[in-house]
Amino acid sequence: MPNDRAIDVERIVREFCKLEPMFIPDLNLTGKPLLGLFSPALNAILVNDCCIDVRQRFTIAHEIGHVQLEHRQGNASSLFGPETLEIFGCTEEDEDLSSMDEVRAESQAKLRRVKEIRANKFASHLLMPGGLVRQVWREERANLEQVASALMVSKEALGYRLNSVGLS
Going by C-beta distance under 8 Å and a sequence separation of 6 or more, which residues neighbour residue 150? Predict the structure, then answer.
């Protein structure tokens, strides 16, 4: 449960995105442990229950990013305006994986990386809006550990966000 300053990402996923967060011990669907995933079939975001709270929160926000940027799932409107996010488009050709040659495979891997980077950026903006980060940064006298604790994010994620809002 978030404190009075942290963004309530579980509430956002339930009430705004109309998805259910599901916490699964040792989430593993492909032979490799997963942090999380979006399942349209279950209308849920599955999260590895073995991760620490700040990791689970970022994973939920990251998966909301995939839903918002790629799937346009549910009845939710966009959480951010078009000026804030780049929208990723995929052609039919990009989805035809059966005839991919080695060059296309490399291109697809790059495309996947771009999608993950954008979902991370989305999660960062969702959990750490610029105004809130600046406010808590002032209140906590620029103490990285205390700000991360107040926003319920990792120090690493906060470090990236501080840089993007010009506070590092």
Answer: 3, 5, 6, 136, 139, 140
